[in-house]
Design goal:
Blueprint (H helix, E strand, L loop, with lengths): L1 H37 L18 H5 L6 E3 L12 E6 L5 H8 L5 H8 L3 E9 L3 H18 L2 E7 L5 H15 L5 E6 L2 E3 L1 H14 L5 E6 L27 E10 H11 L9 H12 L4 E2 L13 H4 L4 E3 L5 H8 L10 H16 L17
Parallel strand pairs: 2-3, 2-5, 3-4, 7-9
Antiparallel strand pairs: 1-4, 5-8, 6-10, 7-8
The structure holds 2-acetamido-2-deoxy-beta-D-glucopyranose (4 copies).
Amino acid sequence: MFWNFRRVQQLHFMQLLSTCLLLSGIMVCWDKLNNTMEVSYLYFGPSFRNDSFVISREEAYKFSNHGYLINHEDKCKSDDVFLLLFVKSTPQNFQRRRGIRSTWGNESYIESELGVSVKVLFALGVHPHSDTRTLVQQQLYREDRKYHDLIQQSFVDSFYNLTVKLLLQFNWMHAHCSQARFVISSDDDMFIHMPNLVRYLKQVSQADAQHFWLGRVFSNSGPVRWKSNKYYVSQELYPWSSYPPYTGGAAYVVSRDVALRIREASLTLNATLHIDDVFMGICASVIGVAPKAHNFFSGERKSPYHPCIYKHMMTSHGHETDLRELWKTATSPDVQTVDSGFLGKLYCSVTKLRLLCNPFNLNTYSCKTSTIF
Ligand SMILES: *[C@@H]1O[C@H](CO)[C@@H](O)[C@H](O)[C@H]1NC(C)=O
Ligand SMILES: *[C@@H]1O[C@H](CO)[C@@H](O)[C@H](O)[C@H]1NC(C)=O
Ligand SMILES: *[C@@H]1O[C@H](CO)[C@@H](O)[C@H](O)[C@H]1NC(C)=O
Ligand SMILES: *[C@@H]1O[C@H](CO)[C@@H](O)[C@H](O)[C@H]1NC(C)=O
């Protein structure tokens, strides 16, 4: 009887072990597949030469020669700024800005709960349609009188002017907040798990916060040559078939030195390439800085809703209406203990496997994050 019982136990153990092995195998293959699918273009031919973008300073200056309509030069007056957070917004997105102010972009929450000084600014151009521009502009002035957190230049706010907005951010940082230890740039439909991110950055800043550039890294992509595509780039604009590595523009973090050197590089580069994150990759390749990937910076899609995910998440894309709810649940204290102990770890590992190694959740987080043992 006793012997039988042990045999049964052994059998169960072997079963569990082989299941685990099988699952790890699936995970590795799945990630291979996932990565292959993210490569937007397989390339051959001559590789990229960054010096081809070099132009004179006078000509480069034209790309950022836009006057300010709204500015807050004194925003960073206090000496110690840990985080300068730019949110790329557009004039008419009032609701999104309101949502961000009361959740992950709440300065006083971050300062009191997370213990670091942060400055949040929304970066804008002007409304593209001249007939509604005046009205929207009045609303923006009113909004800014209330919150003092908009910076706006006179360029037309459009997808094809995103690189101009990139220059606005780095130039502003250089002029008015060059002491900030880290700079984040984010879209206004993002969710950023500030407690997780700030905890991570505190560790980085204790070690060495130099040459630091973190986000979701694209290192195997190249220009789209289909004219109907939003990301179409002509042969003339970019003759090579691959881009230098860059982080997705939806959210990334750079250290102070990288921000300042990218800005410096941009002063002599042709910023006609409208895809802002790719242009940043070009600037970075000129100064010899490469991005570092973090598994919990999401791709194009929303992260699955689950405490085991919230425990590690940094960013998640595509949030407009669920921001407040997600903020409440994802930053609740329970989340920090969800994977404690062996059973907790097992539970979260299986949960992540189920949620991330799943064809319906491609482009969120990597499947291999399930193996956090
Ligand atoms: C920001 O956070 C503070 C402190 O946690 C809180 O009192 C305040 O209500 C929050 N602001 C908004 C707009 O939610
Ligand atoms: C970008 O902004 C400039 C300056 O306002 C404007 O002349 C140009 O038309 C804009 N480009 C696009 C594609 O909107
Ligand atoms: C910048 O690049 C565009 C596209 O290739 C080109 O038409 C333009 O002449 C370049 N500008 C300068 C100043 O070289
Ligand atoms: C880009 O140019 C700089 C100097 O101009 C050089 O140090 C760097 O290695 C180049 N990078 C690539 C990818 O060619």
